[in-house]
Amino acid sequence: MVSSTALTTKVTSGSPYQLDKSQVSRASSALLRHIKTKQEEKEKTSTKKTLIGDNDSDDEDTPLHNEAVWLVLTTKKHVVDKNRLKPGKIPIPHSLNASPSLSICLITADPQRSVKNIVADPSFPQHLTSRIDKVIGFSKLKDRYKSFESRRQLLSEHDVFLADDRIIMRLVNTLGKIFYKSSKRPIPVRIAEIEKVDGKKVKKDPKSKNKDDDSAFATPAIVAKEIEKALNCAPVHLAPATTAAIRVGSSKFTAEQLAENVDAVVKGLTEKYITKGWRNIKAVHIKGANTMAMPIWLASELWVEDADVVEEDAEEAKAIEGSKKRKQSGNDEEKLIEAAPKKTKKVKPAADDEEALSLAARKEKLQKQKAEALEDGEAAPAKAVGAGKKKRKSTS
């Protein structure tokens, strides 16, 4: 029996580095119930009244009825490999872009006319042609969308942005933070022609690359297949950090659909994007756009490799413990000594010492003068004293 206070449960058989399907299912159903309850409360308290269209089908695609669900994955070590940080995608069983009214913007390498001809080709699927509203080349994108307002308008006009994987890394500076702070980051698509020899891809030397290489596009069938694959994937954009968020569903999904997408995304992340796979994963959560994160898997250790853990011998542990006790007792004695009241000696000022020395010197001089006067008998005691006073004044 699992206690009610347990955040996650581990699998009873096999490797502990796997998701517990029952835990994912429970968390998914609980999260979706919570999101739908919040949506109903917002609808009741909303003061916005419309004259027509309250029950239109278009309202189902608004953020209020179609809130995104995110998978939040936390790693033990930073993901720093540049190949893993490159934008990618993971196939999921339930698409995030299944709406027939989806608006797609396709950003391609130059020249854009070649891609427009591919999309307009009769062999290109009609259900994709109707959803691709804009095809724009990289050079025209830089020239037309320089201002912040123009980029924001472009972002609001389309639902999904697909980009040629040859220029995907150059779009960061071109599109700017208005795109990369949103959930509409461009998804990479392979639409270039690939040379194959005996069924194997031929790698090109980057030093011998010509400008004509960018103008080589695949056939309409291959381009359509790649676009379909991108629309049925979860986009992955990792940062050099320990936390990554990937959209895996929406509030319109069922608990089973959301759980299946979570399982597919976690599997794809551990196999391709996360260094050391499961051993580098610290926690996995799911959350809505405005909800708390619900844990579905937590690591039982914080290290990646077993070699990172140093085990102490029994004798070494005792020696360290004994040294700690001796150090602690020594510190206690020092504290007691410091706390005991100290006797302070009164220090005379320096001026008093100088006066005492000068008086002693004067007395010695007077005694010598008196002794000499008595021996010689030249003067009376009174005169000797007076002379002594005069001499003392003169010496002073």
From TrEMBL:
Residues 37-46, 320-341, 361-373 have a biased composition (Basic and acidic residues). Residues 1-60, 320-396 are annotated as: Disordered. It comes from the Eukaryota. Residues 1-28 have a biased composition (Polar residues). One of its GO terms (cellular component) is ribosome. Keywords: Ribonucleoprotein, Ribosomal protein. InterPro entries: Ribosomal_uL1-like, Ribosomal_uL1/biogenesis, Ribosomal_uL1_3-a/b-sand. CDD domains: Ribosomal_L1. This is Ribosomal protein L1. It comes from Aspergillus ibericus CBS 121593. The lineage of its organism: Eukaryota, Fungi, Dikarya, Ascomycota, Pezizomycotina.
